[in-house]
Predict the 3D structure of the following.
Amino acid sequence: MGAPGTPSKGLVSGVGSLGVRFLLLAVAACALMVVDHRTSRLQSAREALSFVVYPVQMLVDAPPRAWRWAKTTLAERRELLAENERLKREQLHASAKLQRLDALEAENRRLRELLDSTGRLSDRVLVAEILAVDMDPYRQRFNVNRGAIDGAYVGQALLDANGIVGQIVNVAPMTSEAVLITDADHAVPVIVTRNGLRTIAVGTGDSSRLRLPYLTNSSDIEVGDLLLSSGLGGVFPAGYPVGRVIEVRRRPGQSFADVIAEPAAALDRDREVLLVWTGDKDLPGLTDGDDSAAPEAGIDAGVPAIDSATTDADESEPAQVADIRGAL
Amino acid sequence: MRFAPFLSLFAAFLLAALPMPSSIVAFKPDWVALTMIYWTLTAPPAFGLVSALVIGLALDTLTGSLLGQHALGLLLLVYVCGRFRLRLRAFPVVQSTLVVAALLAVNEFLLLWIDGIAGRTVPIGERWPPIASGTLLWLVVWSTFDRGREHAPARL
């Protein structure tokens, strides 16, 4: 196609010399970039291109997948028994906690009814596998094996067993592209469980650190404070752990404190993540049967935080969450 | 042999997507750009400007960058290599390696520049090791295949 040196071939070969063709195509590329940056109109083009890229992603992901399959298939009986034993114990612990949670949930619902606040909806989740495909090494992005046909949507939150992982930024039919909360361009609104202080946790580009740049020197923040998602901004469901403060430095000369937090989720060790559908989004027909309701304590899916009527609920929430966490 | 450019390009995509240990990931060369340069210099009808655009768009989808970002870089590489192909092929190994290093640097700078305009945060220091590794790779590949090329009839 349009090869340099053979001007008789190619799509735009009639237009002119090599230089003219180069300029035309370069302008086209620039125009594409501007459109892609400013609007979301190129979503369908991305989807079409994702079919070209899909075989590459699957092929690259195949060896790790095969290795995992071989490892589980050829695992020794003894190991499997030990693992089974451990999982049974964990299951027992978890179900014991869940019993407490049911009571708390009921109590919470009753209190909310008393407060006249909007009813809460439980979140639905779907397990997605992270593809072992390397993307732009300068940004913390990854692909998961769930796409538009599974009901994934742009802006959907991703969780793992310990906390918030990131959100989806691009959806293809079979896969989705997600960004970690520690990406340098990502920010998540958080709330400090100890005192209800609201702030924003910003990524650093290092998957083991988050920054809290908007806290002044006089802010009440300490090492060890747990940060939960506040639900402000409407992307992440409220009440899931985001991180824990590991460093607070107050320098007298500056008005803002240097606060560093460690993400709660195992960002660089995860293999599977959960896609979360919060209450107001349509649920897909397919949910793999594991539509486990997450702990009701902090989930505030149906309550947009902008509504002034809900500010009371927002203020009282951290205390409840802290109590529940203390009780467990 | 006819499909060699396409097969190697597919391999370049695989290598670009292959996860690497974090210790060496900073030195991952731009496989696709190197492959495009190589085939543009040795077998000109393999990739033209339009295919550079399409391949660049596919790479943009793979890496999650702006649509057109890698495409613009590859267009520039293919244009320069196509325009000065005969001269570049006549260069001795060291000289052609220097030109390729410059091309890779311009490509990398273009990507960095567009990221900057689009308001994406990018660590500048980590942009340069891939140029070094890419240049080294080029030196090895070009000096290995150079011998064979001299005896083969030049395809002009």
The mean pLDDT of chain B is 84.
